[in-house]
Amino acid sequence: MFFPSWLPSAVVMMIVQAEERNMYDQYWLINHLKESHGVMTIRKTLAQVEAEGLVLPNGTLVVDGRPVAVVYFRAGYAPTDYPSEVEWSARLLIEQSSAIKCPSISYHLVGTKKIQQELAKPSVLERFLDNEEDIAKLRKCFAGLWSLDNEEIVKSAIEKPDLFVLKPQREGGGNNLYGHDLRETLIRLKNEQGEALAAYILMQRIFPRASLTQLVQGGVCFEELSISELGIFGSYLRNKDKVVINNQCGYLMRTKVSSSNEGGVAAGFAVLDSILLTDE
After folding, report:
1. Cα–Cα distance between 249 and 242 in angstroms, integer?
2. pLDDT tens, 94-113?
3. Which residue segments constitute the domains of the chain, with CATH numbers given?
């Protein structure tokens, strides 16, 4: 853990929702940090941070009288997490401190759908990579991504909505639009114009191969066609322009029935799964 030696009492602060549904894995992490590393964790909402927090002249973030070394955001990713200026003030306070943020506001924004769309534009990857072979491998993995100011693509999506997905700048499941809902939303957004168009991107719909899977629901086992999505975890830590850590550190496999358009685990559309490698 990256705790300053001059702050032996420093804690990890976990940012949570006021009515948290995902508390059990949070407490598992809290117990692991305590038992394996002797590190204390406090759980706070953004409103509590605003009420109890301050930043000292040396940059130290203090919340409820405790110096905070790491801020771990388990909330703060949805508009509903910022119902008032109080929550925005708390986010600004955290960003202005020297505490390690997981993620910082810049890293948070890099994960938005809009950045994915920007990276898919011609010549953009070349700003970050020099090896042409690596660039070609990355581009091969990209689906089509477009902003809604591309009138030709928007027209195609209205005519053939089943070939596209309309995605807002949101995390988690339950937000994407397909088929009839996609067409109707695009027509409405075209009529409204303005900033509403920037809230979404269009993505080429992917049709992965489905496989027969054993599933259990309500204590009953049954077979259903399902599809899986593999995500690779990365750990990244920097101090200004100096990169301290940039490693791959595990994976997350999500599986859902192939008839479901959504894929969020916490939202109830998918389940956590594991990989079985074969020589087929």
Report:
1. 20
2. 999 999 999 999 889 888 88
3. 11-107 (3.40.50.1760), 116-204 (3.30.1490.50), 211-273 (3.30.470.20)
